[in-house]
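User: Could you walk me through two proteins back to back? I'd like the raw sequence and the structure tokens for each, with a short line separating them so I can tell where one ends and the next begins.

Assistant: Of course. Protein one, sequence then structure:
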Amino acid sequence: METPFIFVHIGKAGGGEIRRKIASAADDVTRNQWYKARDDQHFYPIKDDKSKTKFSRGRFCNSGWRNHRLRINGDLEGTFEETAACGATTPLGRMVACPDRRKDRCEECAIDSDSCRTIYTGHNYLGSELPWLPPKVLKRWWTDVWSFSKEIDTNFSSTFASDLDITSVNAINDTHCKPNLHSVLKVGRMTERWIEERCSDPLGASIDTQTKMFWEKVEEKIAHSRRYKYSTIYSSLPVRRATMMREPYSLLLSKYFWQNINSHNKSCDDIEYAAGGNDIKYSINHDEGEGWINSFGLEYLLYLCGEECLARYQNNMTDIDEIALQAEGNVRHGFAVVGLLNDTDGFYDMLERRFGYFDFKNISIANDARHRSGSSNECKAKFLNETFQEALRTRIPIVKKMEHLYNVAVEVNQFQRIELDTCNK
């Protein structure tokens, strides 16, 4: 199983260029704009799981699937990929209660399919695939990979398998519903809101409650789950992920210029403002008083923690420490390739060796736009200064967590290189 492939694009870490190259690394690419995947007959030659001679055709998809967010005071956060509502706070709850109902937004990954041969890139958090992975794929994963769940909780194991079956319930009613039944239909905005309120929300809450009870039993059996929370689920999912990590100080400085914070007469080395300026709101959860580094630092962790982490954080069900630990567990175990921005060539080499269907040697689609941030030699020198970095770590603790996560990524990257060198001999 080499697909779906998902590139988790952390903002200001080279993601725009990487997405273009991934789009161009297919066979028979003739289109002029990399993100318009339906404009040509490109394909990725994906080896069949059961045969060394048979191939399937994978297709590229950019930002085709929505992000799923908690409603805050009735409103949804706007995102590039568009946003759908989801109140579930566990990965398993999101699989069942929050399906993406936009039919066939990405080719080769239909809602009623038993496979997903999609090469996906977007601005989505890790875990955003839970609503769009086909239920048949998820059910096979649950019954095969999590077969031991029967030994932990037989009732939950069988009930959840049934929840993943879109054919097990034939109608929505007030006591039992299955949002996925409506995913194969074209639903209007009003119908979707009705399904959300009468079906998705109560179903998500019910599965969340069951999942938490089940997870307490899992944590008794698996030490990894006690430390890294739901990363055990993410690392076991039938997907292949890759990401690019950037050293946090240069990333934060890039964010500073990209978001035009300098235009508000706030210098890059104003640590107090970075820690808690209150006249500009950059916070993920829209609280006043959070500084821009706190906000971007939280976003950095959330990209790697999982989309459900944001819902838990907004519901005051978790804290930064737990988010950082789950993100660490995902970086350690949830990615097939972890790249480092200071070695992009090495990243593409790792992708080619890990996945046989990429060819980065003959990139045909020109780069039509670069997402470059502004710059300042004075600010660069300041953010490279160890004394200044220590002041940031001391005043803004999330910086230390970002730094630790990057160091974990370096460790994982080195291990993966050794592993690939050994496997390719």
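----
Protein two, same layout:
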Amino acid sequence: MAAVAGRTAWSSDPIRGVRLEGLDVWRTMLTIAGVALHATMLRPDLPLYVGISIVSEAFRMGTFVLISGLLAGISLARHPTHVWFKRRLAQIGIPMAFGWFVLCPFMGVVLARMLPAARIGAGWPPFDWHHIWFLVGLLLYTPVACAVDRFAARSALFDELDHAGLHGATIRGLYYVVLPLATFWIMALVAAIVLHTTPPSLIRMMSQWKLILGYLPLFVTGLTIARSAAVRGAIAERLWPAVAILVAMLLLYAAWYGWLCFTPWGRDHAALQGVVRAVAMAWCPPAVGALVLRSAAAGGVSSPLFRTLGDASMTMYIVHYPILFAVNAAFAWVALPEYGEYFAAFVIGLAGSYAVHRYLVCRSRVWGLLLNGRMATSSAPRATGFVAT
């Protein structure tokens, strides 16, 4: 463990004000993956689009939650809890409110006025929060993070973890087995409650609660990783469990989607598809999170491109979705090759969302606050590690 944990200053002391260069590549890749996924919105259910959706849901948002918890833990250690809490409410709450009450109604207008009825589908209430559910989740995680931080300060929890002499295998067992099991069963419970208590018109929207609540343990785990050198070292020390889990999930998907779902037995047990996807959504984020942690611990300097896109990830997350909504609604009225439309939508969504960051957020304090949660301060440096995408 010591060989890995002592390789960089961040590994042994993440509280110092250094940029986590290893996260820039991951933030960029996850942001681009989100654009690739949402470029399939309002389009036919072609095998490529279904495949992109299945792969993305397995790890993308859960990994973002884990990274958010990691950076929240670092930030909480640098600032008083009450200061961090107030700042976080503004950093997350203002973009969330702007997205939900301005951008989401815009998408409702697109659905109602611009899109042919055949392309709309069912389950889109006019006040749907669409992708803003993630910011709602981060806002709800904020008091939890403060409670964990205060409890840890009073009980010396993280110091106890570092001096308890826990074997690395024990920590990895908690991380790769207990954490995914907690996530899985919370998701299953919330999904069942939503299914039996929610009107059909709200199912699409309210089903996101299984992710918000199911990924809460991931957020707390990320916070713990940030504050405990023993936990960090144990996870980053050996990556074979993460690789084994990802290979197992790949084989599980190949078995179900490549064979079982086409058999009479698979058609008779179609509900198992939801279980397969839930298993992947519970086990893949910790596995990918271990790779992220190893990248962050490895240090090094990321390229200017990854730094730039990493800093723009919050803005791009918020605005790429309505951009793609409008673009795909416009494409619904023209006769272009299907995959040509998809590629064009992807490029427009990626370039358009970055342009909003570059030419609005970076040049205006108002837009910086509305779309990036950027607080206007004259003395404090901008937080380069803030992740809310």
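Residues 2-372 form one domain.

Let me know if you want the two compared in more detail.
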